[in-house]
Structures are given as structure tokens and as C-alpha cells.
Specification:
Layout: H1 3-14, H2 38-52, E1 54-63, E2 66-73, E3 76-80, H3 85-89, H4 94-104, E4 107-116
Antiparallel strand pairs: 1-2, 1-4, 2-3
The chain binds zinc ion.
Length: about 120
């Protein structure tokens, strides 16, 4: 068996059954580098999962005259208290919410976050 054979078999037969979520956002170093090795596909899978992960987030906006909750699903506002209902209506992204609140000098705090793997 060649190095490629071993890596291909690993990718086809072993990797699909491995939970690599603990490696998310990390680097994996191996003395095989720069030759191909199974570490390459392990870390690639971990990074794919990071992209594919669906994140549900509950945040609270604190303004001088109100406190309002919003729910983001995969970085888009899907629920919002009536006073900030325009964020839901406009399907604001997390960055939009953060920038807007920053301009208004409102505070946004994430109070709860759940990560789900797709599929
Ligand atoms: Zn290696």
C-alpha cells in the first residue's frame, strides 16, 4: 500500500465515523508534513464542521429606555422583541446588529448560544 492508498482508505472508511469536533478551530501538526497524511483530512473535516455548524443565539439589547431580546439562527435575526422588530423584518445579520447598537451606544450581550451540527 502506498501513502495515498492508506490516506484514501482512512478518508473513506475511518474518518466518516470519527467525531473531530474537539479539534474545531485548532491546528493539527504531524511529522509527515509536507507529505500527505491522515491529519490533513482530519483537520479539513473539523473545519468543514465549523462552517456547517448551525448556531442558535439568544441576545439581549440594553438601551437606556428598553431591554429587548433577539434570537439569531445561523447569524440571522429570526425573532425579536417588538421594539426592535425591524431587525427580524430586515433579517439582520449579527454584524448589522452589533454595528447598529454600537452607533446607538446600546449594549448587546449574548446570553445563550447553542451549536448544532448540520445533518
Ligand atoms: Zn502524519
Amino acid at each position: 500500500m502506498t501513502r495515498d492508498d492508506v490516506c484514501n482508505r482512512f478518508e473513506a472508511e475511518v474518518l466518516p465515523h470519527l467525531d473531530v469536533s474537539a479539534l474545531r478551530g485548532k491546528d493539527l501538526l504531524c511529522h509527515c508534513a509536507p507529505k500527505r497524511c491522515h491529519c490533513d483530512s482530519i483537520i479539513a473535516k473539523a473545519n468543514r464542521n465549523e462552517v456547517a455548524a448551525m448556531i442558535e443565539m439568544l441576545a439581549v439589547i440594553d438601551a437606556p429606555h428598553f431591554h429587548a431580546g433577539i434570537v439569531l439562527w445561523n447569524d440571522t435575526v429570526i425573532e425579536a422583541a417588538p421594539i426592535v422588530g425591524y431587525m427580524k423584518k430586515g433579517k439582520w445579520s449579527r454584524d448589522q446588529v452589533r454595528d447598529y447598537c454600537k452607533r446607538k451606544a446600546w449594549t448587546v450581550s449574548v446570553v445563550h448560544q447553542i451549536e448544532r451540527e448540520r445533518g
